[in-house]
């Protein structure tokens, strides 16, 4: 089905993204996968291509755009290519908005130029060993000490945890205030007491580093408080709908690419004297997947229009996130089956997509949490 969400300027931008992927990511992807770490130069290159910072203010070197469709195009093309090197969606869609919307003028001058150029890599630290989807279980604390805050605690599953120069840390500043007791702090590389633990050995997405972070009496100046004290939980909630939509976009774009490759494989691969796609079961399965992709893309495009118009709700984003990721998981699994033994070989795109995509129903809020959000909205 022809998609109508994008205009000529977006499609021109898509060609720039494709060029960046072909020149900067594809030649280095296998090396980064083996080393379990992407080279920082990939972020700087993205900055030069205008793929980082396009949504930051022009006075700090950005493009000044508020059109989330540009974010979506980057997410789509990287997912289609299957080369998950630099975490551009994390940089642009997840963490970047905190620095764009919550910083004061002094903080903007300090941080935005580097973020915009790709020289400063950013991350957000929410998840803890004992607190995943339940943010209320966060134990990392920040205690005021004069003009500073003293942070203690540990975080885990932090994307870009090894490479990051600035990390937005969610900490409890008032143990008695419930959801009003959290604040956000920017911890900088080199601050005493801030250490990086293990580079975690993940099932997939090997080139994107994920790490444990530790904070032992880290003294952070009050000038590094991000947003308002006690409003950390609300700041996080404001950005979650677009973050979840970003995951949905990547999931279904990646699944579409794997489906297209599998469709061609089903036409070329022969068994019992005929293409495997011509067997009724396989033909019906391919028909189902094509339908599921079209229907899901249409809902995602509707949500994308909602972001552009400033109308996307948390419930709509939760629907997009759980449905798109679960649908993508099912489609890729079917594609592995259609490939037979070859689908289990990592030299085939479908096998890599199987392990790389499995996290999508978990991070950004699990499928179960998404259904909880929707169920509560139903008054249940």
Give a quick set of tags describing it.
16% strand; 380 residues; single chain; alpha+beta; Butyryl-CoA Dehydrogenase, subunit A, domain 3; Butyryl-CoA Dehydrogenase, subunit A, domain 2; four-stranded antiparallel beta sheet; four-stranded mixed beta sheet; 11 helices; 3 domains; Butyryl-Coa Dehydrogenase, subunit A, domain 1
Can you walk me through this structure?
It is a single chain. The protein is α+β, with helices and mostly antiparallel strands and 380 residues long. It has three domains: 8-120, Acyl-CoA dehydrogenase/oxidase, N-terminal domain (Butyryl-Coa Dehydrogenase, subunit A, domain 1), CATH 1.10.540; 123-230, Beta Barrel (Butyryl-CoA Dehydrogenase, subunit A, domain 2), CATH 2.40.110; 234-377, Butyryl-CoA Dehydrogenase, subunit A, domain 3. 49% of the residues lie in helices and 16% in strands. It contains eleven helices and ten strands. The chain has a four-stranded mixed β-sheet, with helices on one face. A hairpin with a 2-residue loop joins strand 9 (270-271) and strand 10. Helix 5 runs antiparallel to helix 6 (105-117), helix 5 packs antiparallel against helix 7 and helix 9 packs antiparallel against helix 11. The radius of gyration is 21 Å and the shape is globular. The model has no long low-confidence stretch (mean pLDDT 95).
């Amino acid at each position: 089905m022809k998609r109508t969400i994008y205009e000529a300027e977006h499609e021109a931008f898509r060609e720039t993204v494709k060029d960046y992927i072909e020149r900067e990511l594809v030649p280095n992807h296998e090396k980064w996968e083996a080393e379990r770490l992407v080279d920082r130069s990939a972020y700087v290159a993205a900055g030069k291509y205008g793929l980082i910072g396009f949504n930051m203010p022009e006075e700090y070197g950005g493009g000044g755009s508020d059109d989330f469709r540009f974010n979506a195009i980057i997410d789509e093309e990287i997912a289609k290519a299957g080369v998950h090197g630099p975490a551009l969606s994390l940089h642009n869609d997840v963490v970047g908005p905190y620095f764009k919307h919550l910083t004061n003028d002094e903080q903007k001058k300090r941080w935005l130029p580097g973020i915009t150029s790709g020289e400063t890599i950013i991350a957000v630290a929410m998840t803890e060993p004992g607190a995943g989807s339940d943010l209320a279980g966060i134990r990392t604390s920040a205690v005021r000490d004069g003009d500073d805050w003293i942070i203690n605690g540990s975080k885990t599953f932090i994307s870009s945890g090894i490479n990051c120069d600035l990390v937005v840390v969610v900490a409890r500043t008032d143990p008695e205030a419930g959801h009003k007791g959290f604040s956000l702090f920017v911890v900088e590389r080199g601050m005493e007491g801030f250490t990086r633990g293990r580079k975690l050995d993940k099932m997939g997405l090997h080139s994107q580093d994920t790490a444990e972070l530790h904070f032992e009496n880290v003294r952070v100046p009050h000038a590094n408080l991000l947003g308002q004290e006690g409003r950390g939980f609300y700041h996080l909630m404001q950005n979650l709908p677009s973050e979840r939509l970003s995951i949905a976009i990547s999931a279904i774009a990646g699944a579409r690419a794997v489906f297209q490759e599998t469709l061609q494989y089903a036409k070329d691969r022969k068994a019992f004297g005929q293409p495997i796609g011509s067997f009724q079961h396989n033909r019906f399965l391919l028909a189902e997947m094509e339908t599921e992709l079209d229907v899901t893309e249409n809902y995602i495009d509707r949500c994308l229009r909602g972001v552009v118009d400033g109308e996307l709700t948390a419930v709509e984003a939760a629907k997009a996130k759980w449905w798109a990721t679960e649908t993508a998981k099912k489609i890729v699994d079917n594609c592995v089956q259609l490939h037979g033994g070859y689908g289990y070989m990592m030299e085939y795109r479908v096998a890599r997509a199987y392990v790389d995509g499995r996290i999508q129903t978990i991070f950004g809020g699990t499928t179960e949490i998404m259904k909880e959000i929707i169920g509560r909205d139903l008054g249940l």
